[in-house]
Amino acid sequence: MTRLDLFIARMISQRACIEHAIDLTAGMEGPVFELGLGNGRTFDHIRARLPRRDVYVFERAVASHPDSTPADDQLVLGDVFETLPMMLERLGPTVSFAHADLGGHNAQKNDTFARAISPLVEAMMAQGGIMVSSDRMYFDRLTELALPEGAMPGRAFIYQKQG
């Protein structure tokens, strides 16, 4: 596959998993966390699909398209290793849906980061909550689910917190 093909596969997989997570969490309350804003495309999509849900975005510095920039009360700025524990203390383990697209182009660095962030993500998830990630995560109490139709293996991952 070319780099363009890989990018398209990632975007199609990301959208399919986000849509599946929205369907799976339709009856749940609790906030939605977007870990990493980037250009703001996935935040904009989630915000449009879940207009009555609180969507919090975690980012070091805002560099998104103006149309995809969260309001100040939706933005949690700083190092995610500090801001996730802060939000856990504030909200408890109530997150119904989390999405993370935090990786870069170095697979080894992405894996190291995923291993470090997984316990923080796991702690914030509500029972039955869904986590969608661009990278494989490492959880004790979240089970990897089968990918929905349209998602390509290795391009996205989806997990659910079990009892």
Overall description:
With 163 residues, the chain is of the alpha/beta class. Helix content is 37%, strand content 21%. It is built from 4 helices and 7 strands, in the order αβαββαβαβββ. It has helices at residues 3-24, 41-49, 80-91, 107-124, and strands at residues 32-35, 55-59, 75-77, 95-100, 125-133, 142-144, 157-161. The chain has a 7-stranded mixed β-sheet, with helices on both faces. Helix 2 (41-49) links the parallel strand 1 and strand 2. Helix 3 packs parallel to helix 4. The longest helix has 22 residues, at 3-24. It starts with a helix and ends with a strand. The mean pLDDT is 94.
The average pLDDT score comes to 94
User: What is the overall silhouette?
Assistant: globular
Distance between the termini: 39 Å
Could you name the ranges where pLDDT drops below 50 across 5 or more consecutive residues?
none
Strand order of the largest sheet: 3-2-1-4-5-7-6
Strand percentage: 15-25%
What series of H and E elements makes up the topology? HEHEEHEHEEE
- Any idea what the radius of gyration is? 15 Å
Total helix count?
A: 4
Q: What is the total tally of β strands? A: 7
Helical residues, percent: 25-40%
* Classification by helices and strands: alpha/beta
Largest sheet: 7 strands, mixed
